[in-house]
Amino acid sequence: MSHLTEEQIEAFERDGFVVVRGFYDDQEMAQIKHWVEEVQAYPDAPGKYQRYYEDSLAEPGQRLLNRMENFSPYHRGFAQLFHNSKLQEAISELFGEPAVLFKEKINFKFPGGDGFKPHQDHQAGWWKYNNLCITALICIDEANQENGCLEIAPGKHKSGMFKGWTPLSEEEMKEMEFISCPTQPGDMILFDSFTPHGSQPNLTDKQRRLLFITYNRLSEGDTREQYYEDKRKSYPQDCEREEGKEYVFRV
Ligand SMILES: O=C(O)CCC(=O)C(=O)O
């Protein structure tokens, strides 16, 4: 059974992304939101899932949970949502072959949480693991221009990768036009790992949570464990960091 229409597949190929409204219904979303709240409440734990913090832009000195990654091995509900599911099937339709989970994260964007400079996901060292990824953004809380929804530059995904490990420069963005993609809970945005995107800070008083689930072609291998092993070394979560050492988020 197909989960995407021909028009949606065409739009994805043309623009490098497609917005699928209401991919999950209200009942499914109530469940997913509950799971997000469960993992959000997990304690920091060295050697397990990975939790990253940021400085609040609103309250100096306050640390905010910014993102959580690699939690599906520690949560049965998410594992079922990501594997052998309608989500994995929809991504496989776009690849034209079976997809395998590469990584997953929740971006929490609490009030005062920062935005993301425009970038291509592939610039974050993903080229070491595969040639192309497709990410599904699942909207948990309404996302809009005030709280920092996703902003995307359509039609630029076929121009290859810009510089590794660095966001896009003003010069590189000269020919790009970023459009806002507001979403409601249950909406999904599918985008390719060469599609330029970013977002603004959250200047409202409510959190804005988005789930990002990334797959690659199964024919390029299952490299998820290797990716997280490498990331634990190169950019460890806050509770695994050495005191006095500086860690800088690059892209
Ligand atoms: O959560 C957001 O606002 C955008 C996230 C993003 O671009 C990323 O994590 O690569």
UniProtKB/TrEMBL annotation:
GO molecular function terms noted in the UniProt entry: 2-oxoglutarate-dependent dioxygenase activity; iron ion binding
InterPro entries from the UniProt entry: Phytyl_CoA_dOase-like (IPR008775)
Reported cofactor(s): Fe(2+)
Keywords: Dioxygenase, Oxidoreductase
Family annotation (Gene3D superfamilies): q2cbj1_9rhob like domain
Pfam families: PhyH
Designated name of the protein: Phytanoyl-CoA dioxygenase
Species annotation: Nitrosococcus halophilus (strain Nc4)
Top-level taxonomy: Bacteria, Pseudomonadati, Pseudomonadota, Gammaproteobacteria, Chromatiales
